[in-house]
Amino acid sequence: MSAPVISATMGAMNPLIGKLAALMGDEYKKLTGVRRQASFLKDELSTMKALLEKLELMDELDPLAKNWRDHVREMSYDMENCIDDFMRDIGGADAKMGFIKKTAKCLKTLRKRHRIADRMEELKALALQANERRMRYKIDDCTNSTNNVVPIDTRMLAIYKHTAGLVGIDGPKKELVSWLTDTREKLKVVAIVGFGGLGKTTLAKQVYDTIGGQFSCKIFLSVSQRPDMSSLLGGLQLKLEMKEELTHAHEVQDIVGRLREYLTHKRYLIVVDDLWDQSTWNIMSCIFPEVGNGSRVIVTTRMEDVAIWACGNDHECVYRMEPLKEQDSRMLFCNRVFGSGNVCPLQLKEVWAEILK
């Protein structure tokens, strides 16, 4: 699997935490006060990092959360520059130096250590201020609150994208089709995992269209990040045209029971698109009965742990998407920019490689 994409914020935070950990090592054991401050900073920043990772996964952030995220990123860069200066300044006296030179260097180093201790206090104050702003602006609530504004779902474009415009999908589609059309009669769950924008939804839809005719019941269901399970499962009832059941089932448990009963009599293919957490899957999986008739479920997710969980810890059923290869990237670029002719003008050929990077 290719290395995950690291955001600008994480790119600033990760090296800083690593350098603070280095300041706590044996090499700096004489700097007791500095090590203590480094330990405090590392703990504070690690807590901020955990929240930042949650914010990175959200499709939409409110202005306050964006402002706080950007502030922490800039603060991280400033802190890292200071730590780099500390590490460069602090060093032992050269064994080949004479007594006078060694003494002079020690005095100079002592003054530097005092300056470093003062600067570490300033960095500690910056971290405390950032966490205080986090509490005051209630940034943590952004990861739990729902948004009343209904955004345009860009995955809809992937679902209805014309096959002719797709690039680099034939190989992955063929592999997944082979996984899903084996002779195994037991219910099989296959997960497609990868970061946002790789084309998981498009791939799932292509596989769905290819093998859907082999099943008596097929549904493509989009989940989203914070689903209302009652609405989601009620929508699934509508897709299955279970009209006679809609007026009787209001609780999630009731809807799950009715869906499970309905699917017990079907050989089904269901796509659960854009699954974000294990708890949602724990509910969703209850509607899929195991009746030994070759039913199949496809899950798409950005989360490796969710993909593995959905597949019952069967790593062989997890398809890890990778970015397009260079040749496919070039083809896609030409297709998008120059139309279906896929021909790049001669005067641009020297720069298009740089654009692709």
UniProtKB/TrEMBL annotation:
Keywords linked to the UniProt accession: Coiled coil, Leucine-rich repeat, Nucleotide-binding, Plant defense, Repeat
GO molecular function list: ADP binding
Organism: Aegilops speltoides var. speltoides
Gene Ontology biological process terms from the UniProt entry: defense response
Entry coiled-coil feature ranges: 113-140
Superkingdom classification of source: Eukaryota
Designated name of the protein: Powdery mildew resistance protein 12-like
Transmembrane segments: none
